[in-house]
Amino acid sequence: MLRKGVDGIIISLANDTVNFQHLNEVIAQDKSLIMFDKIAKTVNCSKVIINDRQAAYNATKHLIDTGCKRIAHFRGSLLPQNSIDRFLGYRKALEDHNIPYDASIVYICECADKSFEEGEQNALKLLEEHDDVDGIFINTDLVAIGAMSAFQKAGVRIPEDIAIVGFSNWFMSSVISPKLTTIDQPGFLMGKTAFKQLFKEIKSRKKNKPIEYKKIELATELINRESTK
């Protein structure tokens, strides 16, 4: 992109990104860089994010408030910052409500392009290994929908036997049965905000004005539907 003469870049990191040298090169060449959603805290640029940790805390607390005592977590892969923060929010909610953390009921979903299948597979593993779980906070809606499919085929009632909260408010979450309780992540607004910040920084650079990097945090909301009590 730099060879094509772009003035700036908006980027969300891949799940397996561990080297940020290419991003630092963008900044070193005095180009605007805006990160959104999946970010690197160590890269010095503007970022548009949500508070993943607080959103995950709210999702887990909702399960606790509706009576769940043994809450599993289907998390994303170990590297992305948003996956880390959602796990930490889940764990903090358990701690604040005196529910012991159990690493054996945290299942990792590694493949973004096979999210539905991983949801199904982890749901079946959970039934085999921990039939006492009564609630699950799941890192994305597509994983949650896969898990719900597996549970329903196995005769598990949602939310009577297992309550589920997803994350992102993907369009399918409101049309499946039961409808999925989830965290609304404002994806469209995130993209729009990232572009506005990029445009602002590009204009400032062209006028040789100093750039003020910003961390812009957008609000999330728990959408209470039918997959929780």
Automatic annotation (TrEMBL):
<dbReference type="GO" id="GO:0000976">
    <property type="term" value="F:transcription cis-regulatory region binding"/>
</dbReference>
<keyword id="KW-0805">Transcription regulation</keyword>
<dbReference type="InterPro" id="IPR046335">
    <property type="entry name" value="LacI/GalR-like_sensor"/>
</dbReference>
<dbReference type="InterPro" id="IPR028082">
    <property type="entry name" value="Peripla_BP_I"/>
</dbReference>
<feature type="domain" description="Transcriptional regulator LacI/GalR-like sensor">
    <location>
        <begin position="61"/>
        <end position="228"/>
    </location>
</feature>
<protein>
    <submittedName>
        <fullName>LacI family transcriptional regulator</fullName>
    </submittedName>
</protein>
<dbReference type="GO" id="GO:0003700">
    <property type="term" value="F:DNA-binding transcription factor activity"/>
</dbReference>
<dbReference type="Pfam" id="PF13377">
    <property type="entry name" value="Peripla_BP_3"/>
</dbReference>
<keyword id="KW-0804">Transcription</keyword>
<keyword id="KW-0238">DNA-binding</keyword>
